[in-house]
Amino acid sequence: MSTRAPSSIEMLKRLVAFDTTSRNSNLELIRYIQSYLDGFGVRSTLVPNAEGTKANLFATIGPEAEGGIVLSGHTDVVPVDGQPWDSDPWTLTETPDGNLHGRGTCDMKGFIAAALSHVPAFQNAQLKVPMHLAFSYDEEIGCLGAHSLAERLVGSVPRPRAVIVGEPTMMGVVNAQNAGGGIVATFTGFEAHSSMTHLGVSAIHFAGDFIHWLNELQEELAQRKHPHLDTVPNHTTINVGIVTGGTAGNILARECTLNWGYRTLPGDDPWEVQRRAETYIAELLLPKMKARHPDADITLKRRSFVPGLLPQENEEAARLALQWTGGNRTYAVPYGTEAGIFRGHGIPTVICGPGDIAQAHQPNEFVARSQMDACDAFLRKLIRWAETH
Predict the structure, then answer these.
(1) Each residue's pLDDT tens digit, 116-159
(2) Beta-carbon neighbour count of residue 198 at 10 Å?
């Protein structure tokens, strides 16, 4: 059995070294965590994906009792492709200003590292309620792994009291987040020589019409302000992230695919954007395409959906987290996390973790050493609370 616990920064160095970009397997990292926990006598359970190429992990430390606290984080990170890094993104590098650079330092291996570094402290404490660790895969591509993780967790342990999702919030307590939808739109046209545009249908041109419509919808939605929420931006947002299509510059494109999505403010209809897109396509855009050629088509396929988080659903978790941070207010954020998935299973959930979301997905991503220290302090207060409750 291990006798020495690494510091949170030592553990972060180990975790950053694993390239867990979402397109890759996370199993090497998960097996490392499992072995680390085994070294302290902590049993863990894996929840693999259907292909067996990725896995969630959960573990419990302390008594088998209700009222435990779940410390949740995702193990995958976004790509570094094409980004101008000043250091190796897979090597933790500290700069003189105390910033710890590396892919995933902020989003969100910093929180996982802090939780793991405190495993011996959890064991040595006289816990009256358990600490649950819940680490997922594929959060960055639609929170795909968290659904099975939450189901397995809820079905395997006595009901927890709260979930802390450790996304970067500068250790502020977030109790409201946007819902988010990811959609793939596929435009099918009819090929023709580019000098004979009257004989074919360019899938790319009509995809462009759809993007223009999304831009106009975005302008409309931007006028709906929600002064009771402190999110920035303070409105529903739309983004087209990937556009692919066409075979040559002198051929009308037969196919064009848009990978797009939206983020809806808490309390707004999370299905409005998709519903309006479906109506626009069915009533206006697709008939125009079919008038050019009957084989033309447009399909929308939902890629992912991340439920939102509402403040009134998470008052208990927020009250506890504020005790452990020493804060006096909660926040709302415009991005989506796995928090809404855990809340969907009836567990009060908040978001609270080290780092600034502005650093997430950036070249030279970093978390400040001071933020890791604040997260360590948070966990120490959590332990003291768990010894008395």
Answers:
(1) 999 999 999 999 999 999 999 999 998 999 999 999 988 999 99
(2) 7
For the chain, list the domains and their CATH numbers.
Answer: 8-177+308-388 (3.40.630.10), 179-306 (3.30.70.360)
What is the rounded average pLDDT of the residues 208-235? 90
Residues annotated catalytic, as ranges: 76, 139
* Cβ–Cβ under 8 Å, residues 276 and 282: no
Q: 55: which strand partners?
A: 48
Whole-number Å distance between alpha carbons of 385 and 82: 45
Asked if residues 70 and 79 have their Cβ atoms less than 8 Å apart, the reply is no
Radius of gyration of the chain (CA): 23
Angle between helix axes 110-117 and 8-16 (nearest 10 degrees) is 130
Alpha carbon distance 66, 64 (integer Å): 7
By the 8 A CB rule, do 112 and 23 touch?
A: no
The residues near 193 (Cβ < 8 Å, ≥ 6 apart) are 199, 200, 250, 251, 252
Contact between 90 and 102 under an 8 Å Cβ cutoff? The reply is yes
Cβ atoms < 10 Å from Cβ of 350: 30
Return the residue matching tokens 């700069």: 95
